Amino acid sequence: MQFRIYCPLSFLVLLLLAPQFAPASDLASFQQPQLLARFDRNDDGQFNSRERRLLRAAFGGIDVPMLPAELLDYLAMPAPAAELAGIDNTPADNVITDQAATLGRVLFYDQQLSRNNTVACASCHHQDAGFSDPRRRSVGFEGGQTGRNAMGLANLRYSRVRGGDPGFFWDERAATLEAQVLVPIQDPLEMGMTLPQVEQRLASLPYYPPLFEAAYGSPEVTSERIARAVSNFLRSMVSLDSRFDRAVAGEIVLAEQEQLGRSLFIDGIGGIGEFGCAHCHVPPSFNMPLAMNNGLDLKYLDGGLGLLSRPSNDPFTPSNDGKFKAPSLRNVELTAPYMHDGRFKTLEQVVEHYSAGVHPHPNVALAFESDGESSVRSGFGFTSQQKAALVAFLRTLTDNQLVSDPRFSDPFIRRR
Residue ranges per domain, the chain? Predict the structure, then answer.
């Protein structure tokens, strides 16, 4: 009996050609023209599954980024409103540059930053979901679930609202954006690495030394540079091109329902600002000045800022229990589910909470009348028309440019 050994031609090509491609050490090797010239065997301008396998073999079996031939312009962003200049948290030693933001983009999407190469920052912050996670809980590198919903990332640079300088995360535990980006990498559930491990791993990958050299003048990989690059990339995610912005600029006129929602949100019920959403979500960034309690529960399973050993951030509240700092409401239409635990699936449910579902917790930042029964929920008491108007207005904050901008898309050639 005769046996035949079947070996596809494509696999033979892979074996014959892969050894001649040594790991690259210059940035041009990862630019689109060179990668296509080397691995696009059928000259169709893209990589099929066989070509992807060949590419991976050439670089030691790893996914690599494909960079544009010319740097993308991360300084090209909508002109900010004048009042945004005073709330920008960009430090003087980490201003946005195209080189640093390019490095930050690669780091943001690179699964090599997790222990088993399965999770990247982008695994929990999806561009098409306003850089949030559509799941209530995100999934870590070993399949464990995070304790809180991953928030959207738009307008992180505009956080110094009303003279305050709040921290980052739902509980403000990171004082700066640079400190924030290193926390998930070291989290034992999320990415499971130590900073020395990350530095060593990235330094061994062929595309990082030239990327670090382009951004910082030398190929040295350090955690400080990682933090600076990723925060540089995140600060370039400016969301200022929504229908709301165009209406403010006089380019369009909002529909009557949207205008009613805008008035309720910004001016408040009866023109009283304290009875409006903008009291906490301050335009034009729609960020919060500090963590607040919005009456989600009487007893919190997750105490938020109250879990940290800090005095009350508000002299009118006894403690920080149940206080959270929500992300910017920019693109809120895309960032469901809502709240720190993702309990609300829709904007309608969120508005209903503020209308009639607010628990009278002693730390609640909203002043509602109560009949004295501690278990009775309260709220703004919106009419059906007002609820629909608020939801319509919130949808005017969607910036479709941000969620489709190639500057913020995944640069990696993934195995498929």
Answer: 13-63, 82-239, 243-398
